[in-house]
Amino acid sequence: MDTGLSSEHQKLSAKAREFCEQILQPHELEVEENRGLPEASRPELRKAVCDWGFAGINHSIEDGGQGYSIFEQMLINEQLGRATCGLWAVMWQPAISLRFGTEEQKEQYLRPSCQGKRRGCFAITEPEAGSDPRRVQTVAIADGDSYRITGEKWFVTSYNASDYIIVHAHVDGDPDKPTLFLVDVDTPGIRHLRSPHFMHTFIFDHAELAFENVRVPASARLGEIGEGFALTKDWFVEARLQIAAHCVGAATRAAEVANDYAEGRIQFDQPIRDFQAIEFSIADMATEIMAGKSLLYRVAAEITPEVDRKRIHARVSALKLFCSEMAGRVVDRALQVLGGRGYMCENPVERLYRDLRVDRIWEGTSEIQRAIIGGQIKKRGLGVYTEW
Ligand SMILES: Cc1cc2nc3c(=O)[nH]c(=O)nc-3n(C[C@H](O)[C@H](O)[C@H](O)COP(=O)(O)OP(=O)(O)OC[C@H]3O[C@@H](n4cnc5c(N)ncnc54)[C@H](O)[C@@H]3O)c2cc1C
């Protein structure tokens, strides 16, 4: 069994690391100070994503993407996860559900999104519908050859960088008909309510939007009526894998910063690394990262079109749960090793400490991942997680 990376994969990972260090990291403090990525910096970064060959890494060449495998996407995301302030989101990864669009929808939305000419955001969550999306109140009322969408959406990430929204609504108000719609942001009836501040500093916003009788043509429907969740399922697999990859990258950077500091920081006439308390803390960080990274590479490697999607879904939940919680523990230790310096916003570990907290919340909270894992064990047995 060969568990090493091929030379191609090593090269790709090194290139993504270089992209992160040369292109993304120089913008970190600018984003932190401006509470977002200034408009002026966006074109340069957009161009860099294209120049480096990272435009649409999660779609096929036919659909305008780079045709990378899931494993290769994971390698890239791991390295980009080292960047703070969500700068990894500079690299767009258009929603997987677009893959199931009509040829016309692909031409209008997917291909330009892969090329960086358009960008979409995803709106499922609402004031009354978070972990339980069946409680969605947004309705799409069929009206001749169009739909009228009414409702309120929260936490719409990257709204201020997007020109269309993928909206999850119940056709005719029926929760058995969850359906996705492609809605251009300038469609009359969409109102930006506000973009609140969050614990992390993120390059783009997380908006609250009102949809007031927003009329879209029937051709704006993505997939069939009632397919809303089915089309989002694959997205969850990729998004959770992406989060796990970011977490491993972020935890690694935090541990590196702490390890370097422990070497050079002298207190009581010796490097602090020579205190066993610090040495053990670094040892624990390294061990945790090793465990998370092993799981990440193992799960990503087995995701091929032939493998049963349900198994993948089950395992990716465990992966997201473990890596997000692992990264939280690692960054907390790293900050402690840095003492007061770790608490300064100019220190990447402080920013990572805030950045990583949301990874236990979005794309399914830790509790929801545990519920999925528990349900899978009941249905398929413990072996899904232990016999592989
Ligand atoms: C920064 C940020 C960006 C986001 N971006 C987007 C986006 O782009 N698009 C989008 O649609 N959404 C987005 N979200 C929303 C995110 O997916 C939800 O916040 C998440 O699903 C949890 O929903 P909630 O916040 O309503 O919490 P709730 O569902 O209200 O949960 C509250 C608490 O109850 C627990 N809980 C709920 N149900 C159960 C259960 N069955 N068993 C045990 N515990 C349970 C939860 O784990 C949590 O601890 C974003 C959120 C954040 C914070």
Number of helices: 11
How would you spell out the order of helices and strands? HHHHHEEEEEEEEHEEHHHHH
Low-confidence stretches: none
CATH secondary-structure class of the largest domain: Mainly Alpha
CATH topology of the largest domain: Butyryl-CoA Dehydrogenase, subunit A, domain 3
In whole angstroms, the N-to-C terminal distance is 13 Å
Describe the protein's architecture and organization:
The protein is an alpha+beta fold and 388 residues long. It is built from eleven helices and ten strands. Strands 1, 2, 3, 4, 5, 6, 7 and 8 form an eight-stranded mixed sheet that branches. Strands 9-10 form a two-stranded antiparallel sheet. The two termini are 13 Å apart. Bound molecules: flavin-adenine dinucleotide (FAD). Flavin-adenine dinucleotide binds at residues 121-125, 130-131, 155-157, 198, 206, 358, 361-362, 365, 367-368, 371.
List the helices and strands and how they pair.
Elements: H1 7-24, H2 28-34, H3 42-51, H4 70-80, H5 103-114, E1 120-123, E2 139-143, E3 146-157, E4 164-171, E5 178-184, E6 190-194, E7 206-217, E8 221-222, H6 228-264, E9 266-267, E10 270-271, H7 276-302, H8 309-338, H9 348-355, H10 366-380, H11 383-386
Parallel strand pairs: 1-4, 2-4
Antiparallel strand pairs: 2-3, 3-7, 4-5, 5-8, 6-7, 9-10
Helix pairs in contact: 1-4, 4-6, 6-7, 6-8, 7-8, 8-9, 8-10
